[in-house]
TrEMBL record:
Residues 1-20 form the signal peptide. The keyword Hydrolase applies. The lineage of its organism: Bacteria, Pseudomonadati, Bacteroidota, Flavobacteriia, Flavobacteriales. Pfam families: SASA (PF03629). Residues 106-350 form the Sialate O-acetylesterase domain. It comes from Maribacter dokdonensis. InterPro entries: SASA, SGNH_hydro_sf, SIAE. This is Sialate O-acetylesterase. Keywords: Hydrolase, Signal. The keyword Membrane does not apply.
């Protein structure tokens, strides 16, 4: 008994002389990008109540920071205009950390399911050429290691790397093409954080607080069936992959997801809107959130794909959102279209015009349903983003009209400037119009920019 107590006391004494070294949150590594011209947090852990210094080379300033008794520390530093490379050093009692080749620019979080995760090595168009030409030293890539969690986490793991043919080929292709187009126009460093995970529904990316406030979303989630690629448990990827990043300053988010929510499509707008809002609240920034509309595909339900596309269109009512239409680059036999270049380009064009003020005269959206006007048994459907509106093919198809009983009938359609006149002999008093509503419907209406119209369904016309 005495020996055991002696050994225990010895261990306690020895432990008291061990000093915890300074450590950084996993997002901070060599070759990283910090958001430009703002206040960013640097943070991590060290010995409780330890004081140490932080040096930033862009302003040649050294500041002191002290941990709390919880062994955590953080410090806010101001970043300059885009540029670099710079160094940041952390010097304490037990160790010193130097971060090298740090760039200042624009940081984007890239998330969603497999169409965002899809890499060049997963078979994209012109794969070999794209990989060989992917030499962009001022585009930096960070892949978050996959992790689920029942509770919100603080730490992640991964490494920043410069974009080269070797590093690009295993990174999100959509994110890479997005950054490539941003850099082409802006000529500044771009940092990409990829935490996409294939087959995920939006529920796994949404925090518990949303479901606590909306019991109907809990019920709707029960329709999402388990799959062999990832758990469908609510909030587990928010906890494991989003929560640990919310103190790291970002410029915006791009998103490609929705295919896994065709089972509960009718609730997607509410879920998606609350998810976006919850992320912004967690970061305490109303950052831009741009997303790709899912493409036509044989989703197993006749109309589920159309419903999700329309729900995504309706999400544009949330401020600082933008949607890239994709129906013209799809194949209904493959849920993973190989043309990731145009998806990245369209998302980049939205960011360039709406967030950064470039491309002032360029149209970045396909035709979007605006409003309607009833004229007898005909309905005038008006579109925005519809300069040069035209139809591919001799006849305009994919429009349907419903009657007072809610029955839908194929409609005849005729173009008139930015308006489509629709009617059906079976319907004397139209109550609603929809377009490209089947899961496999590929839009044939385009504007002069060559961008396809979005799926839509009107509210009841007499409301």
């Amino acid at each position: 008994m005495k020996l055991r107590n002696y050994l225990l006391a010895l261990c306690i004494l020895a432990t008291s002389f061990v000093k915890a070294e300074i450590s950084l949150h996993g997002i901070f590594t060599d070759h990283m990008v910090l958001q430009r011209e703002t206040s960013v947090l640097l943070y991590g852990w060290a010995n409780p109540n330890e004081e140490f210094t932080v040096f930033t080379s862009w302003n040649n300033e050294t500041v002191k920071v002290k941990t709390g008794n919880d062994a955590k520390w953080e410090i806010s530093v101001n970043t300059p205009k885009a540029g670099g490379p710079y160094e940041i050093s952390f010097k304490g009692e037990s160790n010193e950390i130097k971060l090298k080749d740090v760039l200042i620019g624009e940081v984007w979080l890239c998330s969603g399911q497999s169409n965002m995760e899809w890499s060049a090595n997963s078979n994209i168009a012109n794969k070999d050429i794209e990989i060989a030409n992917a030499n962009y030293p001022n585009i930096r890539l960070f892949s978050v290691n996959k992790r689920t969690s029942t509770y919100p986490q603080e730490e992640i793991s991964g490494t920043w790397v410069a974009c080269t043919p070797e590093t690009m080929q295993d990174f999100s292709a959509v994110a890479y093409f997005f950054a490539r187009n941003l850099q082409k126009e802006m000529n500044i460093p771009i940092g990409l954080i990829d935490n996409a995970w294939g087959a995920t529904s939006a529920e796994v990316w949404t925090p518990k607080s949303v479901f606590d406030a909306h019991s109907d979303l809990v019920e709707a989630h029960k329709k999402v069936a388990p799959n062999k690629w990832v758990t469908v448990e609510k909030s587990v990827l928010y906890n494991g992959l989003i929560a640990p990043l919310t103190k790291f300053k970002i410029g915006g988010t791009i998103w490609y997801q929705g295919e896994s929510n065709t089972a509960n499509a009718e609730s997607y707008q509410k879920l998606f809107t609350n998810m976006i809002t919850s992320w912004r609240n967690a970061w305490n920034i109303d950052f831009p959130f741009y997303y790709a509309q899912i493409a036509p595909f044989k989703y197993g339900q006749e109309f589920a794909g159309g419903v999700v596309r329309d729900q995504q269109r309706r999400t544009l009512g949330l401020k600082k959102t933008g949607m890239a239409m994709t129906s013209d680059i799809c194949t209904i036999e493959d849920i993973h279209p190989s043309n990731k270049q145009d998806v990245g380009l369209r998302l980049a064009n939205i960011a360039l015009k709406e967030h950064y003020g470039f491309l002032e005269d360029k149209e970045i959206y396909g035709p979007l349903y605006k409003d309607f006007k009833i004229d007898g048994n005909k309905v005038e459907v008006h579109f925005s983003h519809a300069d040069g509106l035209y139809n591919k093919g001799k006849k305009i198809t994919l429009f349907e009209i419903s009657n007072a009983q809610g029955e839908w009938f194929p409609a005849k359609a005729k173009l008139k400037n930015k308006t489509v006149l629709v009617s059906a002999k079976e319907v004397r008093k139209p109550t609603a119009v929809r377009y490209a509503w089947k899961s496999t419907d590929i839009a044939t209406l385009y504007n002069s920019e060559g961008l396809p119209a979005s799926t839509f369904k009107t509210e009841k016309l007499n409301d």
